[in-house]
Amino acid sequence: MHHPSAPPAGTGQERVQAAATGLLSRIAALSRALFRAGEFGLTRSEASVLDALEHEPLRVTALAARTGTAQPRVTVVLHQLEERNLVTRVRCAEDRRAVESSLTPDGRRLLAQARQRMAAALLEALQGRVEDSERAVGAARDALTVLADAMDQEVS
């Protein structure tokens, strides 16, 4: 079982810097492992676009911002996903010049199945390492949400 170490001495900034050391590489490693476990059968860009479309239809500009992908690449990815019947694109009702993309039932099913495989892999990996896997995963999600939201506000 992992136990957090005692906080380092120093200023608040020095303590945050020490805590953040390795954060990016650990987040990237977790992301790669979850993607592999999800067995999406898609590229990471395609999976990222599906994930971004889960809650609402989006325009290419919004998808590019959410996924950190260039708009021309998002357009190519959307075309590939549309060919596989995972997304659909329709003209925006408010602005007929714009196109919104949304998940199809097949896209939602693929995303749900991949998340089930990811959850099973997480549970297996955490078995015997933590007392409460659900709490550990929830705490990690909550901590990442706080950090991501804070950084999104910083960039906006």
TrEMBL record:
InterPro entries: HTH_MarR-typ (IPR000835), MarR/SlyA-like (IPR039422), WH-like_DNA-bd_sf (IPR036388), WH_DNA-bd_sf (IPR036390). SMART domains: HTH_MARR (SM00347). It comes from the Bacteria. Gene3D superfamilies: Winged helix-like DNA-binding domain superfamily/Winged helix DNA-binding domain. PROSITE patterns: HTH_MARR_2 (PS50995). Residues 17-153 form the HTH marR-type domain. Signal peptide: none annotated. Pfam families: MarR_2. GO terms for biological process: response to stress. One of its GO terms (molecular function) is DNA-binding transcription factor activity. Coiled coil: none annotated. This is HTH marR-type domain-containing protein. It comes from Streptomyces minutiscleroticus.
